[in-house]
Model the fold of this input.
Amino acid sequence: MTATLTKVAPAPAAGTAAPQRRARRRGRTVALLFVLPALVLLGALVLYPVLFSVGRSFFDASGTRFVGGDNYTEMFRDPATLKAVRNTTVWVVVAPALLTGLGLILAVLVEKVRWATAFKLLLFMPMAVSFLAAGIIFRLAYDEDPDKGVLNAAVVGVHDVFRGTSSYPTARARDGQGLTEGTDGSYRTTATVSPGDTVALGLVGVAPKDLEGAEPALAAAARAADPGELRGVVYLDFTPGGGGKQGVVDRRESGLPAMTVEAVREGRKVTSTTTAADGSFRFPGLDAGAYTVTLPGSNFAPPYEGISWLGPTLVTPAVIGAYLWIWTGFAMVLIGAGLSTLPRDTLEAARMDGANEWQVFRRITVPLLAPVLTVVFVTLVINVMKVFDLVYIIAPGPVQEDATVLATQMWLVSFGGGNDQGLGSALGVLLLLLVVPAMVFNVRRFKGSQR
Done:
């Protein structure tokens, strides 16, 4: 018979239990003392304002009369609030998706760039710029005046290269001087002319800068037409310093060069030409008959002013564009950190099996990065729900309501002229309720990744 010996741990002495309990209590007390300042700040800066806002949302604008849920009812009846909810929805759907996609693409591409660190630094630099400064920068960039707004300067430059610009946008004809204005902005001779005639078409209102390279028109006006030729001159019917006679070419009056002129017969354009430096033009080889000389409206079209970036239609996409400029580097860095942890042997095995780079990206890289992409996306969702600075600074006053989101609407209602802090508190509570689910989801994702 075999005896089994069991080693029994000795019981702690009766006198050691109490010191251990005191040590544990002392440890908890020390930990609480270290945590206490953070708890006080958390309570003062987060918990108290939340509870105060919830309570304030049940009172009227003065804060003295309890109104129950009237503020919440009014909130969803107000057209401005409904527009803010719609714009916030656009932000939540568009901005995080674009940022996550751009960050993913840039994180993958930057691995193949020789100066990867410098490239990442360049894209991450806007994160160091405050939203206030970024808003001012983009407010200037989006300015509708091409002389101030860099975007419209580029758009106008490209437009003028391919479509050209009018020669004399401010020019017009004098009343009763033989020219009639058409509905399309063109001018035509009141009386018909025939080959062999010479016509003088006087205009006024021409800016001095449009007369660069212009020569005196008197010699051209005095030149007779050849047989079968229609000749004329387009000139500025204005004598510098005064004097001269309306409708007659004076020796000090300039021709208008580069003006398009058409010969029209029975409503149909027969031919066209462009005036010389002295404003002269000629139509040789015309058939006999009555013609009307026309100055097309393209000569007088107002200059192209570009795109109204901050108009009611484009103001929200414009502000989202500024937000993308700031946060793309953030998304790229986080996704790049996740990309650096991917198993390289899996990627190389896929390439050896014949997968191209697009297949590797779509079927291996993206699925492996899904947890990181989710965290980045949800973090950006939380962030865009609270966006305030960019919208308030970039959107001009007349279109502020078209660009408003919940955060700006809450401020406008409470302090920006509405002075109804009851309704503003209700908007704050709504914003909190929208943000909390995303925050809970993110916290659970973090806890899951730690496990």
Remarks:
- The first helix runs from residue 17 to 56.
